[in-house]
């Protein structure tokens, strides 16, 4: 029954599309007109504002990871295969070298003397975020 109904409506779709296109051409006029471009820019700004609003709300509700500020931190990691990694993890004052593979985590070595890690990847990302924020503030002033 549904197929029959759709088959009956099928010939009407091109006519309806042509009618809609004709109405749009009559109402909108030239796509390069000032009114059309203004609508386009305002629509784009509205979409961008909504994206920034949702990002701000996600950060306020802590839906995004806030970085590694807890007791456990990944200091460094390297890929040693297609799906395997080795990571240096710090828990409190102790550093542990672990092997990571899908579905398995194995302690490879516990370091007696912690390695001094100058900058971690998350700290570098934090620095980039700080620089970007400073740059954006300078643009406003």
Task: Outline the structure in words.
With 141 residues, this protein is an alpha+beta fold. Among the domains are: 40 residues; 47 residues, no CATH class. The chain contains four helices and four strands; from the N terminus they run αααββββα. A four-stranded antiparallel β-sheet has the order 1-2-3-4, with no helix packed on it. The model has no long low-confidence stretch (mean pLDDT 77).
How would you describe this structure in keywords?
single chain; about 140 residues; alpha+beta; 4-stranded antiparallel beta sheet; 4 helices; about 50% helix; elongated
Unreliable spans are: none
Strand content: 15-25%
Give the overall average pLDDT. 77
Q: What is the rounded distance between the termini?
A: 66 Å
**Spatial sequence of strands, sheet with the most strands:** 1-2-3-4
Helices, strands, pairings?
Layout: H1 2-9, H2 12-28, H3 34-60, E1 72-79, E2 85-91, E3 94-101, E4 104-111, H4 121-140
Antiparallel strand pairs: 1-2, 2-3, 3-4
Brief characterization of the structure:
The chain is α+β, with helices and mostly antiparallel strands and 141 residues long.
């Amino acid at each position: 029954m549904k197929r029959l109904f759709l088959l009956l409506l099928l010939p009407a779709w091109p006519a309806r599309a042509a009618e809609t296109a004709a109405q749009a051409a009559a109402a909108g006029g030239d796509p390069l007109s000032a009114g059309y471009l203004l609508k386009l820019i305002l629509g784009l700004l509205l979409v961008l504002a909504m994206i920034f609003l949702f990002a701000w709300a996600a950060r306020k509700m802590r839906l995004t990871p806030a970085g590694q500020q807890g007791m456990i931190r990944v200091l460094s990691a390297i890929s040693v295969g297609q799906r395997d990694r080795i990571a240096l993890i710090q828990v409190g004052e102790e550093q542990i070298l672990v092997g990571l593979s899908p579905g398995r985590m194995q302690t490879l070595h516990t370091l007696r003397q912690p390695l001094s890690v100058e900058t971690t990847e998350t700290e570098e990302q934090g620095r980039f975020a700080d620089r970007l924020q400073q740059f954006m503030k300078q643009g406003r002033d």
